[in-house]
């Protein structure tokens, strides 16, 4: 075998190779002899088919397999000899001018880039700071109360937060349009299930009152035939129901899983869960800044093959997510190209983090993995059951190990960068800011 390497671009490589036809012919003969031992043909006992007939029938298959094996072997040897890290799969290009004595071909492929960590001391990371106190517990309990809101009839005008039951009919150019009418239709004013202008028109009406009004749909409305169009609605209110929040009492505590209805225990559980969630959100915000910092200080070119593979995987994940939501993906085109930017970022971070883990020895230690698994199990009724589940299968534990490695990288980067604590409002951290 002979090889010759060219470098078309920074990551792309081309290796010219040749394999002696004598080697291929020898391999073809060996494969045909192996087939002859078991091949079955009418008129012959198994293993007794004449070699000439076996060759006539199976020689093309044997030659194709032999050439494939020879090319794979030649490429593998060349890569090892030149100490190349191949990214993706090579593209094999036969040479038309091959001689009768040798099969000549080229392998075109990409290699992994050299990753050199940049100077992280120039980067600033702001760690959100928030202590969970009574005020945060009270706000969370209020959210839990609102999630369990009931409604009772109210003899007054409808206001924000009320649930109304209405009949309505919408007309465009005097004609009813599809989806524009309903009877006994309930919705909560201010919940966002209806367009704001529709809610505004209903607000202030009492049970039994009716109203006719014009409304213009937004330009980006999902129903294209209505987008930007002005229509007329007739609305009749049949019920106005005021919201009633449950009292924070024994029944409320029991409904949330506190068996004896002790409200103080409920508050303790809410505080514990809230502290865990606040910690998780703070870690997520720090992680996002760390990843941005790594990309900022470590500019690298990424192999197209890895980006294409990652884009395809993201597209498949999106399809599975849509199917889990009950959608038929055959009717919804999901193209890998949609995820190209996200794929580039993920590949870059994967390469950078892998280099840091290797050079800075940030591998997951068994005690770190154990601590993480036990922390995740704390929110379960039987924590030991989840711990056993993780440790029962290596692939499950590998998921926890990956999280620990990521946490190790985040901690190391934060220690190298200019990291400061920045107080954050509870609503802002939890995503409840107006």
Helix content: 40-55%
Query: How many separate structural domains?
Result: 3
In CATH terms, the superfamily of the largest domain is Trigger factor, C-terminal domain
Encode the helix/strand succession as letters: EEHHEEEHEEEHEEHHHHHHHEH
Shape, please? extended
Kindly report how far apart the N and C termini lie.
70 Å
Radius of gyration (CA) equals 34 Å
- Regions with little confidence, pLDDT below 50 for 5+ residues: none
Q: Architecture of the largest domain in CATH?
A: Orthogonal Bundle
The assigned structural class equals alpha+beta
| Relative strand content | 15-25%
Q: What composes the largest sheet?
A: 5 strands, antiparallel
Number of strand segments: 11
Rounded mean pLDDT score: 91
CATH class of the largest domain: Mainly Alpha
User: Which fold name is given in CATH as the topology of the largest domain?
Assistant: Trigger factor, domain 2
Q: DSSP helix count?
A: 12
